[in-house]
Amino acid sequence: MANLLQLLGRGKPARPRPDSLRRYRVDVPMELPTTDAVFLVLRRMRTPLVVIVSVFAIMTFGLSMMPGTEENPERLAIFDSFYVISYTGLTIGYGEVPHEFSYAQRLWVTATIYACVIAWSYSIGALLSLSQEQTFRQAIRLQRFGRKVRSLQNPFVLVVGYGQAGEAVCRALEDQGRDFVILDEDPERVQQLALDGYSSDHPGFAASGRDPRMLGLAGLGHDRCEAVLALTDSDETNLSVVMSVNLLRPELMVIARCSDREHAQQMHDFAADVIINPFDRYGAYLVMALRRPAGFRLASWLMSKRGSNLPHRLSHLTDGQWVVCADGTFGFEVTRDLESAGLDVILVDPADGRPDVSDAVGFIAGAESDIVNMANAAHARIENDQLFIAVRQNSAVNAAPLQAFDADSVFIPTELLAREAVARITSPNYWSFIDHVLHEDDEWDRRVMDEIVAVVGDETPISTRLDLDFTSAPAVVRWLNEHELTLGDLVRDPDERDVRLAVYPAVLVRAGRRVFTPGMDEKLKEGDTLLLLGRELDLAVVRSTVFHDSAVEYVATGREVATAWVFRQLQKVTGREKATASRGPVPPADEG
């Protein structure tokens, strides 16, 4: 059964940005101090370099002072001495040039060999020691990370926090071909990024999102950055990210995770676009399934995976006593949501043992341990087999046992965060339709659900966005310049006009205003944006129709016209001649 509590979440829309938040335009910091690896090498290798240079200088000067042989009594010139010391000190050994050396010169060259070996050993040891230092290796990784981020050419999303929620978001972005950059405090999580099997190499670095300089280095100031997701386990870190984005790049969308109401209010003050508190929403969706079953089924179905069938109504979800066995914030949030809907709720601590559910209608196992949750859920099912059982899943490791247990509802906070965050970034119009479903009354939801099922079928529809502009729909734009085209015409089969495609218009966006479930007689205009739900093949037909003038004319009028432009012009000329001939000769004017 497709489960809204598992697949769907809705954040609170941010309030308008207060006018009191005056801001001075500041460039996003992009560099951290003392992060240049070359600077670190020069600073730490200063003494070894001085030793090597000193040895070469002393040996060069000393060799030039050594007397020559009886056949060649002249001393070596400075250049010749430097040449000999260079290949000797670098252990190359060309020989005695420009002539044979005297014993004094040979003795000096011998001393040079030992002195250079000692100097090089000391310098290489210092360099190897530097390469093992964490600071130097961190600087190298940081520079490599910065180069990768700066080289990004496609729009990307900055994800702060690569836990379960962050990983789920990144996998959803990967499935849609979107680029992303990872920032997480835990080095092991960032190292796991390379092992998670992504098709592309995505930049990631282990650092705190509280540092605005690290956010800048991770792409906050990049022209291609289109959104920021703050998904860490720390509300304070997520608040810091929201503050930095709001003050440094207020034009970017920022979506934040939050489990504390005080931090959520502070995020609202900094105008976060979406604040997702999965604990706060869970009880609200339970109440929605109880009070508005049609809206629950429709939203759950639309947010299910591709190919999922329309879920059945939860018939045994009724009023009565609810038992919430949970610890921490989760139990408090769920209990308050259920009580606000007028339900009788008992909150018990998992440490107090197995609760009594014999007279209850619903049981929520919401401890922080999956093992405890499954044990309590199993006991509750044995004690009351008519009980509605909801289980909180904290780790993906336990997904298979929970699926085998077949609970009525499985609450996965990470999935909830991921689906809403990705939906808002990649398909805001689709999410606006889901949000509209959640706020409409049950009668409207039931009617729309019946309409979609009648057109598309009972499998989860696929959504697509269609922009009626010259780039995305050139044939439609050319037709609209001289004629009319309705929404009903657009969803006709271009091969058989009387057949309607399995396509349902969900949203029409015109001049920034959204019209939900527009009528088939709605006249389209250039610049409109449509959100269409339907089957994949039928949506592909619509996307093909808008590029062909003959197909657009056929679905609009029923006239079959040639595909090529030349033949269409000939048809127009022939049509005008036939029309003239059918009217007959024009009678002469009466001269009275």
TrEMBL record:
- Report the residue ranges that make up the RCK N-terminal domain in this protein: 154-276
Q: Which PANTHER family match?
A: POTASSIUM CHANNEL PROTEIN 2-RELATED-RELATED
Q: Please provide an example of a Pfam family that matches this protein in its UniProt record.
A: TrkA_N
GO terms, biological process: potassium ion transport
Entries under PROSITE patterns matching the protein: RCK_N
Q: Which organism is it from?
A: Serinicoccus chungangensis
What Gene3D superfamilies does the record tag this protein with? 1.10.287.70, NAD(P)-binding Rossmann-like Domain
The membrane spanning regions, by residue number, are 49-66, 78-95, 107-130
Identify the InterPro entries for this entry.
NAD(P)-bd_dom_sf, RCK_N, Trk_Ktr_HKT_K-transport
Q: SUPFAM superfamilies recorded for this chain?
A: NAD(P)-binding Rossmann-fold domains, Voltage-gated potassium channels
Keywords carried by this UniProt record: Membrane, Transmembrane, Transmembrane helix
Q: What is this protein called?
A: Potassium transporter
Q: Does the keyword Transcription apply?
A: no
